[in-house]
Write a structure and sequence with these properties.
198 residues; Thrombin, subunit H; two-stranded antiparallel ribbon; extended
Length: 198
Amino acid sequence: MVEAVEPYGRVISIGIMKEQKREAGDSSVHGEYSKVEAFIPIEARVLPHGAVELKSRVSTDLIQAEFGDLADHDDRLLAAWLRMINAKLDAILSLLEKSREEFLHLPHLQVELSGGGICIPFAAPAALGDRVEMKMMLPLNPAVALYIYGNAAKVEQGKLCVNFSPMDEEIRDRLIHYVFLRQREIFRELRENRRSVE
């Protein structure tokens, strides 16, 4: 593991951690994955006991396009069918837009993120083992909106660490990709700061 000291004194741990066996009370949420500190839009909530088990997923991206109005078709039955399909599509797009709006107003928080888990500032009551739902935006290009689920592994005053539940490799790959890019960004900043001091 590499520890880098930023100019204002904060130590950032970067690198692959040794795999650790999780035992009862173990607070490790990163396991074999690299971790990094990041400032991202995220919101977390503890799910009620007995809530339906949901799987981590990517929120649907909405691509907006402009379509001009077309004249009604001469076939009245076909025109009625097309109007019904158009109304259904409008309803679906409206639901997608509402889902996207949820991610646009997330608070930006300082987190410690890896492919295995996350530690976030958290003020609400939580207990070990609680099921946690997180909405987060990874600032990639394009940005990726995620719903991530996991279990509380460590609860401290004002901080919650969560082990991610099993998820599709595509989603984990996106998390790992963001961690890698963030690590490169930190190293680049440190290298530039070192050059400016010399």
